[in-house]
Every structure is written in structure tokens, then in C-alpha cells.
Amino acid sequence: MSKKFFTSILVMSLMLIQASTSAGGYQKYLNGDANYIIFDGHQGVARYVVRNTLKVEADEYPYALLSIDWVTVPRAWDGDNTISARDKFYFAYDRNARKIYVVNPQTQELRYLPRDVSRAMGEAAMKAAELAFYLASGEKFYGFSNDFYPER
Questions:
Q1: What are the sequence ranges of the domains in the chain?
Q2: How far apart are CA 28 and CA 38, in angstroms?
Q3: Which among 43, 111, 124, 134 counts the fewest CB atoms within 10 Å?
Q4: Considering the domain 25-148, what is its CATH architecture?
């Protein structure tokens, strides 16, 4: 390989690294507000749970039912932090079986959210449920890397 070709590849690589880091990324706390905690970011869209909406609906060991709101910021990666949607979610936990379910509040139907659920089948909901459990109890349910969890 020629030195010129190698230099060109190096310069392009550095430009790509710079572009990926300066393109923004997602804020851990929306607009610096620790009440809005990121749990999911994908293709420029960020989702944040709203800490002060967390409610323990029921807790009889080994079962728990929590509700929490989450907000969607569709252009977060571009630095536009405008919230486009706010939704309330209900999550059921079976601590003995180590299973999380999203609950349909109208029908009471449960949908299992395994740790390895695909993006299409509910990865965002599973992450929100994990974070809600952590905020309520201080414990990790499925367990992710430590940087996923905020300070309590």
C-alpha cells in the first residue's frame, strides 16, 4: 500500500470518528433534568422515563406492579429536544421467575418481555421496565451495564 492511500484511510477514519461523536448522541437526562432519564436511543429517537411519575401500584412479594410515563424525543440526535409523545406504561414483575411483563391496562393482558427481546418485539418497553424497577427498588431486575442506571 502506498503512503498516500494509508494517509487517506487514516484521515477518513478520523473524520468518521469525529462525525459520530460530534453528531450529538443522546443526553442521559433530557435538557439536564434528572427527572427525565434516557432508557432507549435508536436512529435519532430518544425515549426517557419520567422519574416523578413512577408509582408502585401493587407489591406483594414475589409480584410487583409499577406504572411510569415515558416521553419520546424524535430528533434528539440532532439536538432538538422537543417531546412529541407521552405515554403511561404498566409493568408486572415476577421476582421468583425473574420475568417482566408489560400490562395492557384496558384488558389486563400480560405480554412477556424477556431480557433478550428484539427491538421489534418490545426492547424499548423491556428497558423502561428495567429502569422503573431499579428506580422503585434500587435493585437490577435483568441487569445491564452500570452506565444504564442513573444515580438514585
A1: 25-148
A2: 5
A3: 43
A4: Beta Barrel (2.40)
